[in-house]
Amino acid sequence: MVKYVLTGADGNLGGFAADYIAEVKSDNDEVVFTSYKFDGGEESDWEARGIKAKNVIQAAKETGVKRVCYTSFVGADSDKPIDEVPFLPRDHHFIEHEVYASGLDYNIQRNWLYQNNTPQFFAQSWHFTGLVNSHDVPGAYVAREECGRVFGALLLGKQEKKTVVDVTGSEPVLD
């Protein structure tokens, strides 16, 4: 029997991954879904996110975990020093390097832009004539639901170990 643990199963991406895993898992698989929801706190230390992930990786090794799956972001594979990596993929860049250095088997999923976020980020500028946020740079948007299904498959071992998968839309589009 194989045991799989999915943290953040109550989140957007994790929820879709959990639904997919529940649909396709084998009867012999033991699956544990956990929440990472932090209720009741007034502050959170996002600055220490990378260090927290490093500690989780170390704890995984110490408890006998053999493989980790991590959802990352496009651009995290930059070969630039961490302080030169753009803001959005910076934490992911650091965490990916920690995963590689851990010696554990891994699967990393780099998600591109969620189409679900488009209204949230672009809507404020839509009422201005001719104002767009992409500056004529196309993006290959992908549904968060699809990213969740891919992550569920990765967790269940449907991909070779020590691989990185880019999850992206079928073609780049403008605003």
UniProtKB/TrEMBL annotation:
Residues 19-117 form the NAD(P)-binding domain. Signal peptide: none annotated. Pfam families: NAD_binding_10 (PF13460). It comes from the Eukaryota. This is NAD(P)-binding domain-containing protein.
